[in-house]
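Bug #77: duplicate submission created two jobs. Keeping one. Sequence:
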Amino acid sequence: MNALDNSFRTFNRTMAVGARGTDVSRMQDALREAGFNPGSSDGIFGRQTAAAVREFQAAKGLQTDGIVGRNTGGQLHLADTFEPAPVTGVQATGSNAARLQAATRRARELGLTVTSTTGGQHAEHSYHYRGRAVDVAGPASAMRQFYREMAATNPTELFYDPMGGIKNGRNIGAIGGHGTHVHVAY
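Kept job's structure:
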């Protein structure tokens, strides 16, 4: 197996206009880092993202179809990007309270501010009222990193509209109301 084949081990998705989710926002970040403008890292593969993909493909001598598959994904180094981000002190096991405390600590390490724990205005059956959720806010890049790290910890809920949402282990996409902060619950 050559080095290029090895880089595709974790990149098994084809993305095109209409795709949504954290994979798309990671791809948008990778395009921006490569010097192409996909628009915001909103997790929505729209026309501007497709144009940036085609420009990237042309620059790399790839087929310019605007689709991110095996070849384009490899050139964008998405195999590494799609691996779960390293988690600092946050475990996928343990009590909910311990996991939430570790998540809160990690948010602060990333420069994020805790904006809500058990108070605030939340849906009637929110995990906030049970002391099992926290909302954090700050720079978008730090919130994206926090979301990626928390996704690897098997949270009960994880919402950040630009990247999507997870509930009970299922990717449910953006649910609205979480564009300015990340919500995580265990």
